[in-house]
Amino acid sequence: MFRQLISAFIFVGGGFCFLLSCDKEPDIPARFSIDTVSIDVISTGQLSSGEVPTISIVANKGYNVTSDSEWLTVDKPQGSGSATVSVIAQRYDEGTGRTGHLTVSTAGGYQTVTVRQTATPFPAFGYSYFDDDFSWIVPYATALGAGDYIATADPNATAPNVGSKSQDGDADAVAFMSEFAERGYSVLKPEDNTMYLMAHYLKFCRTDHNNGLVLPAPALSETGEETTDVELSFDFAGHMSGKLYVDDIRMVVEVLQGPGQIERSSGAMSDVSDSFLPDQKDGEAKWTHAKVNVYGISSTTKLAIRHEDMDATGVHRFHLDNIKMIKIPGK
Question: Distance between CA atoms of 183 and 322, rounded to whole angstroms?
């Protein structure tokens, strides 16, 4: 009998403890992080690139954002889990600058984000009017079987001629040429069909036929400017012969249409830049970075990147990638 009572007590007690453990919520550790503690904005409250600043927050036990300045707030002051919060700074046109602080707090912790604002007008220097790494051509290049000359240093890497293929009705080439035009691009000599696709960049020219890429006009309607001054930069590489000799290429930038002048190394202003030579030895396939300053361009300005002598005979094949156009101070 005594043993039965003891067994019953243990059973009941164990069940009681089990019930207690079921009623108690597990202690989940707090997870809290933000991706930045410092933000610099211009007069409009935007980043110098024209984008709205944001803070990425992870707070599994919820977060709250407060500000110590009337001119500074956020669009989502409370939330939980993962959130991207837009930082809103009121316009600031005069003064030497101001600083505010956002405090992001959660259970058991907080972090402060310092926001500095200047009266620099939009767009600020460094604003990007244009930036193309040609990643958008990858699906077309893949579908057409394009190779990668730069990665392999193989002069025989497959380079589909998209002009010829589109004329023959190839659906992928037709789609590429359509998007190419929609993005504002063209070539100097479309009749020659001397533009080719590589894995994620473009190739131009063939024997005795030179060509160049005409860039989209800058979209100044987005910034409200009539004219602007920019640094145009790009990567280029010379192609190689079967014997691994690098083609004789001399790249230039030209103002084809509309206002704009290019600053040469001498300080003189011209429609055509100095020439750029590839930094390659025979047998090497690598990019050379080039940049020029172009002043006074408008939304009607068309710039071209091309071989220096369009009438030259021989082989002057080149590859292009990473074309950028950013705002710089005027002369």
Answer: 15
* 318 CB-near residues (< 8 Å, 6+ apart): 203, 204, 205, 236, 237, 238, 239, 247, 249, 251, 278, 307
Q: Are 101 and 115 in contact (CB under 8 A)?
A: yes
Contact of 213 with 320, CB cutoff 8 Å: yes
Q: How far is CA 167 from CA 3, 10, 199, in A?
A: 97, 88, 21
The alpha carbon dihedral of 110, 111, 112, 115 has a sign of negative
| Rounded Cα distance, 232 and 323, in Å | 7
**Dist. CA 104–CA 134, nearest whole Å:** 38
Q: Taking the model in full, what pTM does it have? A: 0.80
User: Once rounded to an integer, what is the mean pLDDT over residues 43-66?
Assistant: 95
Q: In the chain, which residue ranges form alpha helices assigned H by DSSP?
A: 2-23, 138-143, 149-152, 162-167, 171-182
* The dihedral formed by the CA atoms of 32, 33, 39 and 45, expressed in degrees to the nearest 10: -60
User: Which pLDDT value is given to residue 24?
Assistant: 52
Tokens at 233, concatenated: 């930069």
- Rounded CA-CA distance 54/65 in Å is 13
Torsion region of 190: left, alpha or beta (phi above 0 gives left; psi -120 to 50 gives alpha): alpha
